């Protein structure tokens, strides 16, 4: 299990060379750490199934996940899940008498 002190490392010689080339091409270079953070966020969000996103949102709402972590994992899906949840709750409160035929 990962801890807060664990470093995320991987062997990426080609990726390292590619970043060095782009870094050399740009005046002032590039922020490789920021690119890595953004890329990791995107891939984490892409890797999650809809069921996992719902589970994470529930954990966030219960206070088990911080807003920062929830935003990293869910991004804009937080707002989408909230809208769908509110719409579902509103629909479940509608008067359904007389809707079904006998």
Describe what is shown at a glance.
The protein has 102 residues and is mainly α.
Give a structural overview.
This protein is mainly alpha-helical and 102 residues long. Helices cover 64% and strands 0% of the residues. Helix 3 (50-61) packs antiparallel against helix 4 (67-74). The mean pLDDT is 85.
Oligomer: single chain
Unreliable segments (pLDDT under 50, ≥5 consecutive)? none
Report the helical percentage: 55-70%
Write down the Rg: 21 Å
Instruction: Assign the structural class, choosing from mainly alpha, mainly beta, alpha/beta, alpha+beta, or little secondary structure.
Output: mainly alpha
Number of helices: 5
Mass-distribution shape? elongated
Question: What's the rounded overall pLDDT mean?
Answer: 85
Helix-strand layout with pairing:
Elements (H helix, E strand, L loop, with lengths): L12 H13 L6 H16 L2 H12 L5 H8 L2 H16 L10
Helix pairs in contact: 3-4
């Amino acid at each position: 299990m990962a801890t807060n002190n664990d470093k995320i490392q991987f062997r990426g010689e080609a990726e390292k060379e590619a970043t060095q080339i782009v870094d050399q091409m740009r005046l002032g270079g590039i922020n490789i750490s920021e690119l890595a953070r953004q890329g990791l966020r995107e891939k984490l969000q892409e890797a999650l199934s809809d069921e996992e996103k719902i589970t994470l949102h529930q954990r966030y709402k219960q206070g088990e996940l911080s807003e920062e972590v929830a935003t990293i994992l869910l991004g804009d899906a937080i707002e989408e899940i909230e809208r769908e949840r509110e719409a579902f709750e509103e629909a479940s409160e509608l008067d359904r008498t007389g809707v079904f035929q006998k």
